[in-house]
What we know:
- The protein is an alpha+beta fold.
- The chain has one domain: Chorismate lyase-like (Chorismate lyase, 3-Layer(aba) Sandwich).
- Helix content is 24%, strand content 23%.
- It has helices at residues 8-11, 36-55, 59-69, 93-99, 135-143, 148-151; strands spanning 79-83, 108-116, 119-128, 158-166, 193-202, 208-217.
- The longest helix is centred in the N-terminal third of the chain and has 20 residues, at 36-55.
- The N and C termini lie far apart (40 Å).
- Mean pLDDT is 87; it is low at 1-23.
- InterPro entries: Chorismate_lyase_/UTRA_dom_sf.
- Keywords: Signal.
Amino acid sequence: MIVRFGILAAVLSAAPSTATPPSAIPALRHAWPGDALGRVEGLAALQTLEIELLTRDSATLALDDWCAAHRIDAPGSKIVADRDYSVTKAPTADQRRQLGVSDQEPIRYRRVRLRCGSHILSEADNWYVPSRLTPAMNAALDHSDIAFGRVVQPLHFRRQTLSARLLWSPLPIGWDRGTPIVGATPTLEIPEHVIENRALLVTPTGTPFSEVVETYTRTVLDFAPPTLK
């Protein structure tokens, strides 16, 4: 089901985070205050990023702008994709249905970490239909680490959100009704993953050619909080 902006508040409600292995994401250079103001600012930053991601067709370009606007890395840094060749995931029957392909149609898989300088901002699983891309696009995807969104940009694709959720919130559910913050700390303890989005990429005529699951890391908040600037 495509997320509609009228229910954005419900989409952005935080789900309980699951246990993760020891962090592979670098520690943050900037600490966010653990007081009420710092938590509100942290939540507002995550919601702002999520709105950017949900209203842009390319997550890569949205992260380009986020990285530049918040000076997360050196000026001029652009998002690059680091391929992970050790992971393979076959498409599920539901994914084939979403992509509108038969059981025999080849689907390729690509896992990347989208990085701005030294900051890994997201990890993405991507299933795509090579027969719906050009030979040049398939060659670039097979033999380079370039981000998928940059490769297929000439298709002028649109993004259809299937699901979107915050994996973590600095404020408890019901905070606006006076629910106390339990276990408050001087600085926010931000988990490894903070947002998960799932989407279809479709051509201007509505033909789907890719399904992507994007998991955004805590480094999207690696900038000085507004009140500390």
